[in-house]
Amino acid sequence: MADTAQAIEVKGLFKRFGPLEVLKGVSLTANQGDVIALIGGSGSGKSTFLRCINLLELPTAGQVTIHGETIAMKKDGNGGLMPSNRRQVQRIRTKLGMVFQSFNLWQHMTVMQNVIEVPVHVLGQPRDQAIEVAEALLRRVGLYEKRDAYPAFMSGGQQQRAAIARALAIQPLVMLFDEPTSALDPELVGEVLTVIGDLAREKRTMILVTHEMKFARQVANHVVFLHGGLIEEQGSPEAIFEDPQSERLKKFISSVH
Amino acid sequence: MADTAQAIEVKGLFKRFGPLEVLKGVSLTANQGDVIALIGGSGSGKSTFLRCINLLELPTAGQVTIHGETIAMKKDGNGGLMPSNRRQVQRIRTKLGMVFQSFNLWQHMTVMQNVIEVPVHVLGQPRDQAIEVAEALLRRVGLYEKRDAYPAFMSGGQQQRAAIARALAIQPLVMLFDEPTSALDPELVGEVLTVIGDLAREKRTMILVTHEMKFARQVANHVVFLHGGLIEEQGSPEAIFEDPQSERLKKFISSVH
Amino acid sequence: AQELKIGVAAEPYPPFSSPDASGKWVGWEIEFIDALCGEAKVKCVVTPVAWDGIIPALTTKKIDAIIGSMSITPEREKTIAFSDKYYNTPAAVIGPKGQKFDATPEGLKGKILGVQVSTVSADYAKKYFAPVVSEIKEYQTQDEANQDLAAGRIDATQADLITLQAFLDSDQGKACCETKGNVKDDPEILGAGIGIGLRQEDKALKDKFNAAIKAVRANGTYAAISKKYFDFDIYGK
Amino acid sequence: MSEVQAPVTYVPPKARSLFEPHRLVLMAVAAGLVFCMAWFMRWDWLPRYQERLIYGVGQTLLMLFSTAIVGFLFAVPLGLAQVTGPRPLAWAARGFCTLIRGTPLLLQLWLLYYGLGSLFAQYPEIRSSFLWPYLRQAWPYGFAALMLSFAAYEGEVMRGAFAGVPKGELEAARAYGMGRFTLFRRIWLPRAVQRALPTLTGETVLQLKSTPLVATVTVVDVYAIISRVRQETYLTYEPLLLLALIYLCLTGMLVYAFKLLENRIPNRGA
Amino acid sequence: MDATLTLLSFSPPGWGGVLLAGLLASLQVAFGGYLLGLLIGTGGAAGKLWGGPILRDLLEVYTTVVRGVPELVLILILYYAGTDAVNQVMHLLGLPSVDISGLAAGIFVIGVVQGAYATEVLRGAILAVPPGQIEAARAYGMSPLMSLRRITLPAMLPYALPGLSNLWLIATKDTALLAVVGFAELTLVTRQAAGTTKAYLTFFLAAGALYLAVTLVSNVVISMLEKRARRGMVRSGGAA
Ligand SMILES: Nc1ncnc2c1ncn2[C@@H]1O[C@H](COP(=O)(O)OP(=O)(O)OP(=O)(O)O)[C@@H](O)[C@H]1O
Ligand SMILES: Nc1ncnc2c1ncn2[C@@H]1O[C@H](COP(=O)(O)OP(=O)(O)OP(=O)(O)O)[C@@H](O)[C@H]1O
Ligand SMILES: [Mg+2]
Ligand SMILES: [Mg+2]
């Protein structure tokens, strides 16, 4: 995989759920080390966009390129797309760490088992090594003491941090965060912020969906405002928050401040 | 019921869950028309305090007075309290509208049925009249189109607004809100704010628990900071947010800003 | 008048008792019951009961008498009372055509023998054949044993000659099996014949039935019924 | 049948002290009852049948475990086929489950033993094959009937369990690049089994309670032994009470064993 | 083929009429037993959830014993002991012993067995109602009885229905076990017909078809009921 500067390149992404066209041609480029914040109203398609990047949702049209490798797609029968090479998709997915809006931790495994599952069983790392890495990660997100707890017995904030650790364990080139702070109280938000800041310093590329504008502002170097299935406006945090151009964005920002 | 200025008076409220003492003597007075915001870290006992007011949780010790009527309590066998007059509790509860942190809408009823349930079956209002009131309320929270939908098919924000409408339908003297905006996006938060503002103008008393400091600041005329089972500090929003006294509150506020 | 519930086995036991296609019970024993009750001037209802539970049904008063080809045995007499015998036929062994053996311990050596549970044939087989046969299989009904014989799952079955004869006369029986002879008599097990099962405390009923059995034998009704089903005297010696 | 099988999990009563006053009274009453039974009923036959009873219990357990284990192996594909299989396969699996669950086990057993069994006998090729020594015995039919029944009921349970695994957890696995087989082996199956365990406990107890039916086709299990006792001693209640006690103990042991298994994976309200 | 049709025709010499009568008897017992079971189950669930300690323990013994002992054995015990006990009581009261029909005994036996399962199904369903729903009812001043009637019972229905419909299907099939006490239900008459005519396969298949028909018809009714009860609940979609 070429170490191009472009970590993610999405071109003309369309996504339709039955009659509802959620994405109407979204294009976005993230360079390596970029932290892109995706903001927008509820139901504007932020989660859908993230999910299209790693093909959890199959786009109706469009093209996704990760670190120079374009995901090969072919037409399915129903006017949509499907991946033409399953192995390629699996391989690319191991380079993308995703933190879900609803965590999606595996309930039958402890936190530690959750974190080492993919390194051991998909990437084939030796168990000892995976555990070592996992312990370091869990320390970093402040969950080391909880490593043998099952997700169902942890608070929302703890689950969210476990999900972050799980995503980091595969040492992804790109991290996709779907509202990583929604379940956290203000103090914990600060902690997650620190973790994400560290990741940014490691030159890891990140796209994060968030409702918390303050958070977006602090952590992102580029902000994208989704509206009506399109990118309504994008730019540096300063530009977006201090000097919004479009009416919609102005309204959105003002309702927040 | 005397129309005293004091809408709620809580004196020396203690609450213990087994070994865990969550509330250690909380006293609070709300005059009619007051909007009190309850803030504090996760697990500090905010929800528990609200639930003790309408006796969903039986306090270990303490006294609750609603509009001059003190809820009669007697000792139960295990060192706690229990209401000595069930009917009184039921009667007082119909004067307290509660909006739960997790909504608790009745899943087997449509939004409309949820809203008219208590007016018709507890307060004995004629059905037609209840429906009329309900329709007005649903319009006000922007759910009129969803009146025949079942809660499970609505987004979190919609459920939250339905829960608010349900609470308003009983025309309560006092409203208790447990994080009424947790599931809402910034724009909807603004709407709920308007509703609460209207209620305040109608001289309805409100206690609301919230994690959103901005919201607390805009809507409340009195802010209470719970910490370690006690009221650590209270005062006007300006005092609390601009000039916090205690170390804990300072830390809490700074982590938010 | 008093109504007596006469228990018969719910499982078909032709030609003595079996239901017909309209659900009515027919057979030698059913006609015998009619004759007997007519003689004793009591009203009787035929009540099918699972053979397996027919004695508990009697003792718990679900029925008042058993007329179901039940052999009189000392073991049973500990629990219930019996009238005088009303028929007695020898026990026989049948087996598949083409295999040569006879109804002796030597002949049955190494074979699988089927019997119906809690019958005198079962007791007899356990006493005389158990040491030599490879297995004695017990069935809920004789009919099932016959089926398994036809299906080749057992090598022989021992039972009352009359029921076996009825099976051998059927199409299925004709095709597969033949008699291997009667077993050697053992009066202690086989001798006492078939009686009406009664509760031990119902002495009056027992006397009534004994008198009625004598009467139907004396007035020719017994012979008339038997003639319809058999070409020999089933009352025995 | 129903879209969602609400897991009717068995919630044991609060583990309170065994020695509360009212319990002591109840236990005294129970002890009195047991004493009356021991004293006024006839138990002299017990020693004579002891050995055969133990053998019978062994046969019952053998029947239970063999059919439950093999049946479960069939149940997994049956459940999976109904959830994700291609249409024809899903229909076939669904049809099989409906067929078996819609007819009494007793009838299936007789159909296999007296129906199919006597059909086999009509073919000389089968009668002379190496299988015949097995086919002429009763237990293969008992085994087959019980096993198929367990497979069908469990197939239904597994269908619900597979379908009930939260979609998000499967998505997470896919998002991290798991292949289909790894995903099934590491996430979907263990998670489904975990969800199904409480129901499985109940179903296995039901299976235990179905085993006596095989006695009607001459398989000798503990029920058959007790039937023999009843027929030989003409006692109505005593053998049945003993039988009930035996089954109660077996059920208790089964439930306990499953509890141990369940406790290995804590599962809050899943 | 012709012979088979003759065997199954409705008037003698066909056995179709007998089979149908057996089916009717089965359905009668199943229906009666199911209703009795529901009654016992409702009382049992209420007793287990809100009853005193003695009642709860007794109910626990009842459900444990019934669910731990094979139906076949229970039917034998209840059939003999149950009717025996009734007559003992009548005797003590100086009344003539009553004649308990096979139908009544069958309904009683099936009802007692079903009652234990229904108790657990209903109790589980009531516990499955999210506590918040009941709390909300209390918070708005509903009395316990009203919140039971307006909230708990309708809300538990979707959780109880699958279990209750299973129980109905079990009831229809458990009647087959009454064959062991000689009650002329479908399975026993099938066995009699088969034994008399030797047409085993024909009759077992015919009976199987009848049972299956009962199940399929029941399923249609059940799914209609469920659809109604589950209004307002999200369908748990199949994962793929
Ligand atoms: N699987 C689906 N089938 C049909 N509609 C869907 C599906 N997934 C999402 N949608 C619809 O697509 C739209 C966008 O959903 P999405 O989850 O991407 O929004 P979002 O921007 O992430 O909102 P939020 O901030 O509330 O998480 C919504 O209207 C939603 O109802
Ligand atoms: N029913 C209960 N049994 C035992 N402990 C409880 C119970 N309810 C609450 N607690 C405990 O009491 C403490 C206070 O809980 P409470 O729900 O009042 O917190 P909160 O301030 O509302 O927090 P949050 O902001 O997360 O909603 C927590 O530690 C919680 O674990
Ligand atoms: Mg989203
Ligand atoms: Mg709370």
Radius of gyration of chain C: 18 Å
> How many structural units, i.e. domains of chain E?
1
**Overall 3D form of chain C:** globular
Main sheet specs of chain E: none
How would you describe what is shown here?
The complex is a heteropentamer, with two copies of chain A (257 residues), one copy of chain C (237 residues), one copy of chain D (270 residues) and one copy of chain E (240 residues). Chain A is 37% helix and 27% strand. With 257 residues, chain A is an alpha/beta fold. Chain A folds into two domains: 158 residues, P-loop containing nucleotide triphosphate hydrolases (Rossmann fold), CATH 3.40.50.300; 71 residues, no CATH class. In chain A, helix 3 crosses helix 4, helix 3 runs parallel beside helix 5 and helix 4 crosses helix 5. The longest helix of chain A is centred in the last third of the chain and has 16 residues. The termini of chain A are far apart. In chain C, strands 4-1-5-12-6 form a five-stranded mixed β-sheet. In chain C, strands 9-8-10-7-11 form a five-stranded mixed β-sheet, sandwiched between helices. A two-stranded antiparallel sheet of chain C has the order 2-3. In chain C, helix 1 crosses helix 9 and helix 1 packs antiparallel against helix 10. Chain C is globular. The radius of gyration of chain D is 23 Å and the shape is flat. Chain D is built from eleven helices and no strands. Chain D is mainly alpha-helical and 270 residues long. Chain D has a single domain, classed as MetI-like fold, CATH 1.10.3720. Chain E has 240 residues and is mainly alpha-helical. Chain E is built from nine helices and no strands. Chain E is flat, with a radius of gyration of 22 Å. The C terminus of chain E is likely disordered. Chains D and E meet through helix 1, helix 3, helix 4, helix 7 and helix 9 of D and helix 3, helix 4, helix 5, helix 7 and helix 8 of E. Bound molecules: adenosine-5'-triphosphate (2 copies) and magnesium ion (2 copies). One adenosine-5'-triphosphate binds next to strand 2 and helix 1 of chain B. The site of one adenosine-5'-triphosphate has 12 residues of chain B, from strand 2 and helix 1.
